[in-house]
Structure formats: C-alpha cells, structure tokens
Input
Amino acid sequence: MQVTRPEGHPGTLYIVATPIGNLEDLSLRAGKVLERVAVIAAEDTRHSGRLLQHLGISKPLIALHDHNERDKARGVLERLLEGADVALVSDAGTPLISDPGYVLVREARAAGIRVSPIPGPCALVAGLSAAGLPTDRFLFAGFLPAKRAGRQSVLDELRKEVATLVFYESPHRIMNTVADIVDVMGPQREIVLGRELTKTFETFYSGPAADVHAALHEDTHGSRGEFVVMVRGAEKAEAGLMAGALDVDRLLTLLMPELPLKKVARLASELSGLSKNELYQRALELRNSED
Output
C-alpha cells in the first residue's frame, strides 16, 4: 500500500539504507518503507530492481545518480510536494555516504519537506566495528584520488591526524593505495582492510602497513572486491616530525654522509615508523643548513 497525502501536505523523503552484501541485513522497517512509498529514487535502477524483486516489491523507479542528480532532483521534489512519499536508495549501504543524494536532501529540506532516515548497513561503520582500531574519534574521507600524486597529497595532509582514518577503495587501486600509505605514513603505521564485508568471502587484513601490503600481494584474492581502508591515527607525541626532532635529526645526520638521501629517508622511515617523504624533506633541510 502506497501513501499519498491530501493536497497541500507534502510527502516524506525517506533515506533508506540497503544491504552492502548480505540481503538479510535489510531491516524490517526498511522493507516496509520500500513497500509503502509511491516511488523509489535509485542510484542504479537495475541494481535496485533486483533487490525489489527479491523482496517481492514492484514500484516505479527513478534513476538518480552523480551525473543527473541536479536535473532529477526537481522532478522528485515535485512528487513530494504533491503529497507522494519517496524513498532514496543507493547501490549499497546508506545513501549520501560517498553516494548520491546530497543535492536532493538539501533541496527537500529547503522546501520544508520532511526527510526521515531509515538506518541500516553502512560499510564504514561495519568495518570500524570489527577493526580493533580506536573508534572514539574517526574521520571518513571517502575515496582517495585515483592518481598517485593526488592520493599521496591527501594522505600527507592527513598524516598527522590523530583520529582513525577511514577510506573506501576499489579493487584495482587497493595495492597502490596501501603502497602509498607505506610511503607517506610509514611502514609501521597500523592499518586494517575490510574486504567484501558481509559477503561470503569477507576478509580482514591487519597489522603494520608494510606487512598488510605484502599479505595482499601474496593473497590471490587480495585485489578482489570492495575495500574499507582504516588507518590508525597518529600518536599525539608523533603527530609532527618535530615532536621527536632531536633524535630524528641525529639519525639523519649520522646516515647522510654514508648514503644517498633516498636511502637515508627509507632507512630512517623503517627505523622510526615516520613518513619517508617527510624524512627526505627534513634530510634536505639539514643538508642545506650545512652548506
């Protein structure tokens, strides 16, 4: 049964979380809402159509994704203002969490339309709950840039963040992303990868970044499936290189006469767990100060 309110009473926009893998994770409330609304705005109508078929629900679907959201939002708002209830779903998990919906929700709230969350699966929360990393404070940064330079730049900006860091990553970039974490944040930085969460081949990789990178390389399934990448935040005492500058400077000063700067930075990174890139820059500063 769908609900359409009398004229002058707008409908409700429901933000419905859907399974990230295991279909049994859909809540009873979410199922009832999907059955009751007049229309469903979906990131991928084919993907959501299969979910609805599994549930035995037949509803009109509107495609609303990153490339058409601004155009499609107006039509959805008109339906809501006419009194129809609408559900927003993404391909998997909670809409708006690295998924479309921001424009629609902003415009609906601006128009005085009720926006109601129907909570449920979310990959970042699922990953954090089982990772064994601090969860009292975390920073979700979505997907890292696809190109190495941009990815390393973002990681460098976050290197001193004391909160647990959470990213999403695709299978074809996961090896490069972990390698960049090793280079930028140091080989000893603790990370946890959650692969294929809630699915048949759910796997967690955890430990120092360099060890996790090696484990991925050795696992024939290591680059398959979607990943949640979780990185332990910087220790407060190590949040900046200068916090331990005297010891680090002495280490760099002793190594520089014996080795090229790149090798100095790599060896110092392995010994200290600090970023190879920043150690290289610090070594340059020390060398230039001696000239």
